[in-house]
Amino acid sequence: MTEVNTVLPPLSERSNILRWMRRNLFGSWSDSILTILGILIVYWVLKGFLTWAFTIAEWQVISINLRLIMVGQYPVEHTNRLWLWLGFLVFLSGNSIGIWARQSKYAVGLLIIPVLLALLPFGPEPRKWLIALTVTGLIGWGLGRSQPEALKRSVIVGWVILLPIIVLLTNGLSESETGFMSIVKTNLWGGLLLTFLLTVVAILFSFPIGVLLALGRRSELPIIRWASVAYIELVRGVPLITILFMAQLMLPLFLPAGWTVDRVVRAMIAMILFSAAYLAENVRGGLQAISRGQFEAAHALGLSGFQTMIFVILPQALRLVIPILVGQFIAVFKDTALVAIVGLFDLVGIAKTVLAQPAFLGLQREVYVFISLIYWVLSYGMSYLSRQLEERLGVGKR
Amino acid sequence: MTDEPIIKVEDVHKWYGNFHALKGINMDVKKREVIVIFGPSGSGKSTFIRTLNRLEEHQRGQIMVDGIELSHDVRNIEQIRMETGMVFQQFNLFPHLTVMQNIVLAPIQVRRWTKQKAEEIAMELLERVGIPEQAHKFPGQLSGGQQQRVAIARALAMQPKIMLFDEPTSALDPEMIKEVLDVMIELAKSGMTIVAVTHEMGFARAVADRMVFFDKGEIVEQGTPEQIFNNPQSDRTKLFLSQILRH
Predict the structure, then answer these.
(1) ipTM for the complex?
(2) Do A303 and B109 lie within an 8 Å CB cutoff?
(3) Which residues have CB under 8 Å from A25's CB, separation 6+?
(4) Do A254 and A133 fall within a single domain?
(5) H or E element that contains A50
(6) Smallest Cα distance from B168 to chain A, Å
(7) Is the Cβ pair A302, B98 closer than 8 Å?
(8) What is the pLDDT of residues A86-100, one digit of tens each?
(9) Which residue, of A183, A217, A240, is where some domain finishes?
């Protein structure tokens, strides 16, 4: 055997990290300068932010007002009703993860989130509930995993009745103060609770309306087509804030005398109508991508126009536009912040009331950073879920 | 072969704007007859076959399919589409559904069969076209020839009385043409009424009862394969045949 006379590459080539850095960060003089400049800028920004966050910021404004930020003025004695529907929501999520995300190792980790939230300064009562949420979620997950086929149907039914249950529990039933589940007026709904409800209602109702408008815009009947086009272009041509104002101030003009519509409901209607116009255009984009051959094949088989849409065209069209739809949903979520301007106490509205208290004057930075964090976490969550959905639905695509 | 025509076409005209695509087509198709329509591109042969199930609307003349007149009446159109299966050049399978779901969709939704019955018949058809093992794949995972065979099974699942083929092998790679033609030949021999637009002269020779030559929106000539191949009357037919048979 001959002596192997190996020549090792220079040290900088043997270390993966060094090699990567040399190629990507210090490839040339200009690259090196940009790299160093970039590092300086990041250092400068991070240093400023972290110094503020850990030495100057007075985070007790958050911990003292955490309840307000979460649910606004919602009465303490009824808060357990909110925990109840949250529990149902987490249970269904656990079920669904157990049934539909079996191969994902990490999905079940989502159910740990409530326990992690319990680390925040919530006080003993919410902590108990948060831990209970994770337990509920894990029970749901276990059930879903062991009985996927048997549970599928009831889990879907559960998701369908979730919104009515949420609204019922949040709003209450009986008129009297002392009765079973007495009504909590919507002017007491606030914070993340209100933002969440506005978002969910706006998305769920604007979606079918948006699909109908998109179909209407492609209809062969001129009246339907023109009405859809007129609606879409009209709504897209005005800012959301003006629609919100009109819903608050002008809607009463159109209603018969003596009729009133709740202010939160008015805001919801405005959000729905606004979002539907944008969704319609997104869905239309998907519809246009479906080839004529698909319509012809469905028609040739004897499917009616309605059946063709439901079974052949819409499933394909909607799948194509999932990323755009989710983008729109995230936009709706963030746009709910505008209801603060018309006097509702959503996350931003409640932030303003917190900051109006004399004890917390001048703490805008803390409060707005915190609610931004809430918006970001939830938006990112939606975006993450949409990617999972795309991957799952991508199976067997053309 | 009974003498009762199942398709009656009388003086059918069709315009695209000012372009006269079909200029007075007359044709009777008897039950169990196999008709091959051929002709140069732009001759109106695809347009014609698509008027038979109203994928194209004709503007003058009359089309009767199985005793029902094609008119603006939606119920008549749906009735006729249940009786006629169609196979397209581009397959047009539904990409979001599995092979099985593609086949059972219309029987369940239109014929109102139970899922079980529809799936049983779908499996029989997949065996007939030779790809039962592909039932649970998506169309995108199959070869062109396999996709076209699924499309044939999908059309047959509605138990049509007539099958329309619109250039079923034109989009296929050469090595896959035979597997589709074999299925079509078997279908023709089983007694199905077939109207096929195709340039597969082997298929025409093997099973066609009648060949119809289209050019410039008109029927120029028709006859048995023997007459057409051995003794074409029109110069246009001769020219066209010499062009496609040269290779």
Answers:
(1) 0.93
(2) yes
(3) A31, A32, A35
(4) no
(5) helix A29-51
(6) 13
(7) no
(8) 999 999 999 998 888
(9) A183
